[in-house]
Amino acid sequence: MSIRVGIVLSGCGVFDGAEVHESVLTLLHVVKAGADVTFLAPDVAQAHVINHLVGQPVTGEQRNVRVEAARIARGDVQDIALAKADDFDAVIFPGGFGAAKNLGNLAFAKSPDEMTVEAGTRKLVEAMYASGKPLGFICIAPASVAAVALKGKGLKLTVGSNDDDAAGAVRAMGHTHVAAKVDEIVIDNAHNIVSTPAYMLAKDVAEADSGIAKLVAEIMVRAKSGTRAQAANA
Q1: Using CA atoms, how far apart are residues 215 and 193, in angstroms rounded to an integer?
Q2: Is residue 169, in this structure, part of any structural domain at all?
Q3: How would you write 86-134 as a 3-class SS string?
Q4: What distances in angstroms separate CA 45 from CA 42, 61, 66, 173, one per listed residue?
């Protein structure tokens, strides 16, 4: 039976949704590893719409996160509210500002006490964590999703630089932030979580790919093993 991997999208577009390069690279490596992919996204209104040509909000326009995610998924996106941990061997979260605006509110929260995660997203993360199945977080997602949904669990996560505000958010949620280079991954064996900086540090798509490829490879090893700490700390 093929490994079943969920890829969670937060819309479409780096400034208001899922980072397209990170999403496609994740998909490519997962498929090349022989896994079956299910795209997931919350069926909710996105925080706002950004004109990516000029980088400014579009006044009076509203879009749906799942509908926008379908642009990347070529139409087939499951509502994350309906997802169950039993349906997957692993789940991976690409980044993009949508991970901090639509999957969580890190981009808007004024203090750690205000940080939240979208209900369906939180439910799936908690269920995967409770089942001991591997979770992968890319770019800003370690801070906006993992750190908040699993607050106080003492995870090891990276967003790249220790000086970044996102690293501070990780620490504020009761976790350890581990500085990492763009081509590195941080493995939390105890909690079966893997993270990588990608476009938090990457200057181009090739640099982003260097860490994403390693993250997917590690997640696949762990998904195949079916246990928490079988994979080597590579």
Answers
A1: 10
A2: yes
A3: HHCCEEEECCCCHHHHCCECCCCCCCHHHCCECHHHHHHHHHHHHHCCC
A4: 9, 11, 8, 26
Which of helix, strand or coil describes residue 37?
A: strand
Q: Which pLDDT does position 231 carry in this prediction? A: 37
From residue 2, give the alpha-carbon distance in Å to each of 55, 60, 212, 228: 40, 44, 21, 19
Average pLDDT, the chain: 95
10's tokens: 């937060």
- pLDDT the model gives residue 191: 98
Q: Which of 42, 26, 31, 35 is nearest to 4 (CA)?
A: 35
Catalytic residue among 7, 83, 139, 159: 139
Prediction pTM value: 0.95
Say how many CA atoms lie within 13 Å of 73 toward its Cβ.
Answer: 23
Is 139 a known active-site residue? yes
Supply 146's token pair: 């993992």
Q: Is the distance from CB of 90 to CB of 40 less than 8 angstroms?
A: no
- 39, 73 Cβ separation under 8 angstroms: yes
The torsion angle over the Cα atoms of residues 121, 125, 128 and 132, rounded to 10 degrees, is 180
C-alpha 106/C-alpha 148 separation (Å) is 9
- What CATH number should be reported for the domain holding residue 206? 3.40.50.880
Range of the domain at 102: 4-225
